[in-house]
Amino acid sequence: MTVSYLPFKKLHFAEITDLDPDSLKQSADFARDEGRDVEKIGQVTALNFIAKSLGIKGGWASYKKEYSESIEPFMDKHRLLKRQDILKHEWDDRFYHFYPEQISGRLFHSGRPFPEKIFVGDGRGGRGNSDQLLRWIDL
User: Fold this and answer.
1) pLDDT in tens, the chain (139 residues)
2) pTM of the model
3) Three-state SS for 96?
């Protein structure tokens, strides 16, 4: 399982294991119970913070709607069936090594136009669809 960590403003953090609402509820529970220093945080507060951190305006209720109406259909259309860390790979030296910060910076903070396509996997090593060596999706 690939885990990412989302830091909160006041010494809390959440383990993000997937983007579906049930997984994010578990992430909020983690932030409330284990990923905190001293100050307590409620589940609704944690869920709203996670939703807003993922770019959703309006909090948790808006995230659930956005997930079912946009995110899930996008993932189904492009066969993004389960989250995989495509950045952790035993690369051979012919490829450039990208880090999440580089990709995020290019997409959201470079001031350059948003790309029309993005590479989402290579289909090797039992990851993704093994019938495709290269896979690009239209954004």
Assistant:
1) 567 888 887 778 888 888 899 999 999 998 888 876 677 888 999 999 999 998 888 899 999 999 999 888 888 887 776 655 555 555 555 556 666 777 777 777 788 887 777 666 555 444 444 444 445 555 5
2) 0.60
3) coil
